[in-house]
Amino acid sequence: MNMNRRQFFKVCSAGLSGSSIALMGFSPTAAQAEVRTFKLARATETRNICPYCSVSCGVLIYSTGDKSKNSQSAIIHIEGDPDNPVNRGTLCPKGAGLRDMIQSANRLKWPEVREAGTNEWKRISWMEAFERIAKHMKADRDANFMAQNKDGVTVNRWTTTGFLASSAAPNEAGYLTVKTIRALGMTSIDTQARI
Amino acid sequence: MTNHWVDIKNADLIFVMGGNPAEAHPCGFKWAIEAKKNRKAKLVVVDPRFNRTASVADYYAPIRPGSDIAFLGGVINYLLTNDKIHHDYVKAYTNASFLIDDGFGFEDGIFTGYNDEKRSYDKATWKYQLGEDGFAKVDETLQNPRCAFQMLKAHYSRYTPEMVTKVCGTPKDAFLKVCEYIASTAAPDKTMTNLYALGWTEHSVGSQNIRSMAIIQLLLGNMGMAGGGINALRGHANVQGITDFALYAQNLPGYLAPPTDAEPDLTTFLDKKTPKMLRPGQMNYGQNLSKWYVSLHKAWWGDAAHKDNGFAYDFMPKLSGASDVLSIFNAMYEGKVNGFLCQGFNPLASVANKKKVSDALSKLKYMVVMDPLATDTSEFWKPHGEFNEVDPAKIPTEVFRLPTTLFAETSGSFTNSGRVIQWRWKAADGPGDAKDDTEIMATLFLKLKEMYAKDGGAYSEPIQKLTWAYRIPNKPSPEELMMEFNGKALADVTDPKDPTKVLVKAGDQLPSFAMLRDDGSTTCGNWIYCGVWSPAGNLSARRDNSDPSGLGQTLNWGFAWPVNRRILYNRASADLSGKPWDAKRTMLKWLGDKWGGNDVPDMRPDAAPDQNVMPFIMTGEGVGRLFSLGLMNEGPFPEHYEPFETPLDNNPMHPKNPKATSNPAARVYKGDMEAFGKAKDFPYVATTYRLTEHFHYWTKQSKINAIMQPEQFVEIGEELAKEKGIVAGDKVKVRSNRGFIKAVAVVTKRIKALDVDGKKVHTVGIPIHYGFKGATKPGFITNTLTPFVGDANTQTPEYKAFLVNIEKA
Known about the structure:
The structure holds two protein chains of two kinds.
Chain A: H1 5-13, H2 18-23, H3 29-40, E1 44-49, E2 58-64, E3 74-80, H4 98-102, E4 112-114, E5 122-123, H5 126-144, E6 146-148, E7 154-157, E8 161-165, H6 171-183, E9 189-191
Parallel strand pairs in A: 8-9
Antiparallel strand pairs in A: 1-2, 2-3, 4-5, 6-7
Chain B: E1 13-17, H1 21-24, H2 26-39, E2 42-46, H3 52-55, E3 59-61, H4 68-81, H5 87-93, E4 106-107, E5 110-111, E6 114-115, E7 120-121, H6 148-156, H7 161-168, H8 172-183, E8 192-196, H9 198-201, H10 206-220, E9 230-232, H11 239-244, H12 266-273, H13 289-301, H14 325-333, E10 339-343, H15 347-350, H16 354-361, E11 366-371, E12 398-403, E13 412-415, E14 420-424, H17 437-455, H18 461-464, H19 478-486, E15 493-495, E16 498-504, E17 533-534, E18 537-538, E19 559-560, E20 588-590, E21 595-597, E22 684-689, H20 703-708, E23 713-717, H21 718-724, E24 731-736, E25 739-748, E26 754-756, E27 759-761, E28 763-767, E29 802-808
Parallel strand pairs in B: 1-2, 1-8, 2-3, 8-9, 10-11, 11-12, 22-28, 23-25
Antiparallel strand pairs in B: 4-5, 6-7, 13-14, 14-19, 15-16, 17-18, 20-21, 22-29, 24-25, 24-29, 26-27
């Protein structure tokens, strides 16, 4: 099937998308080239990985902006990475909705606190958040750190503050997390890997 | 996975039990379809539900939730009585010929050494008979009644097809048909791959479900083969990586056991933890523990870790007793935990018994939630109608909620289920003031370090001395962190055979963990990841997808741990002389002077076949274990035990021994035993599961997924629906002894009632994904219903088999 750009948009406006035309076995060669230009030519392509299941499908993220300093990127489209040997460009119903996860109305945007006994969130600054959390942690650690067990063996542990870590975090964040919390003496640690 | 996603295409039989990859891992499951199309492979599914994996299978058999070991034990019995095993493999590559201690035994469901009060075993007799040379005794004829092979045979002789049917409810002909399929892969050049997921792990006998399959795969000679293996289809995109980095108490990075109170110094620790050689001439690779452990301390504490202080041995906290999500929440519930940090985790929704979790969180002084999304957990204190009935005035917990970036907004690596580490690049900034997890952890840590420096306080040396050579201290970059955990040489690393030869120059990145030393001259934050950032650069970012062997190995795509090996135990893919069992799927062969083939050898490269170095290099005996010694908490052979909430009056395998009804070694906390329901009040078996449109409790926050599956439902069979007067679309109330949920009823042909031990057993299927925060219609948290008990080894909660009642709401 050959058609020019004008005809192509006519078909599109009748409710067909370019990709489904291709799926139907037609080859709108020229028009397909047009649609890429139209949608993605000005976008920056970034290779990433779907964060859902452990197939860890390769994805291509398209965003506006060229990643230069002071230019803000906005993600406009995500699709499977055809080069990835595992998913070969495919995405499942979960992965196909990735953009809506990134742009979820429930994304958190600033630090908040819920004070004891109250029924509301209060916006706070990062500085206040770090100060208050560190104060809590230090007070609990100083009060409950166990340097030796009852047999006099050096154990250097802090069990009264727990930590649950994320299996969605990259290896590097996981490594920094385990390095810092072990250095603090924490042993009440777990992750989603168990469940 | 011992193998990897693409390798599934090399199988002759794909056996799926305890998982539903067509719905939960669709893009990985495509390789099962490829195997069917291109190799004429068969797909066999055993599951309580006729799910979408079953719908494309060549054969499907139903099973009662929680009876998998009975089924798999039946398969073991079938293979042994019908002589459908790979003889040469079993004899050479497993511990079939090893003699077991004379004191070891099994009686009426209980192994030797049981302590009823402690609910645990003394494992003193769960071992090999040792000769005077200190090595395990073997009988190569496999005839000695004390050899592992004969003991295996005796143990599983009770698992007859009749018994399988009685316990599992699987019709006998269906069970036998599945056995025939599995047995067909005993031929040396045929392989079965096994795909499982949470359907096996989320049981009080979860680990032994998997052990049962490990025994089957060893008997069939399918370990180490292309298209074989034991393949855990894991949950999150980086759950493998986070497990490898040991974000949990029982391990340190690279699966190193942490020091405990019983090991006061480094020498004692290494002496106790280093595995002993159990047969002559084996690699016993774990004997290198000292190099991995010392290099970890050097990575973390640099110059402060030196020979004179046991490489700062005391800086590492010692582990005491249980420390897992159930034990942590139980301690919190008992008021023994004051603070809690929660990084990208939604425990109110994902941990068992929501009421107990909520009560536990209410006893905290402070809680910190770091997450990209407004989770249910972060609002455990906030009333959300009947979905979360709480009184905030009575909850004194101070809750902080910190916005983080998510996958598209950070760079760094993920490790997939097949152990392949792949780099990702950042595409955009996070919204508002969101920060990376690394920046949050770094800033918090540096703040504490500063406070300790200024004000003093409890033992702060490990904090002050922690290595921190990052260009921007509060923003360590992913590149810096990967280089650090890969490790580098602090001094020249020389060849042990020729000290004049320098293998790695001081300051250089290490190319492999073979270069690690225990004298403090190397650093490495995770020994199994050593090589990922070698002198050649970041190998996880490699994107050459060429596949010269056609077997899907793509050795230049990313980097697989260990040492870019794609199939573990691949030495076992060749016979004793080094000739592949199947030349068309060669992984490894002996080339006359070294091992070579289509994978990185899982063997010393120059170990000639006549040296008899066996393929399972991480064990002290070099072979795979049919008898697992003392490594499992409930016994060296898997035995069927009922779920803690069973629809039956007893364990049909041991009807007269109440101690053997459910896992005798599983930990049950005070109050939780009482919270188990009984079949007379809760007559139906419930099992939780996932939908293809949703991912855990995340995608309920995403609009398109919420449109696809907007509302909570439960699935029941037609027969049960009729009995209860429920029609499709009715609102129903599902109760367990711990609480209730309300949901829409889906009446289906997919779940059928089964005849179990003379009793009709109905199963209720409950998807998990809903909650009170999100873009979906508000729903109840499914784990309101589930019991607070886990597997005896991993403490993974029993979400897949418990009891409920159901009625029209």
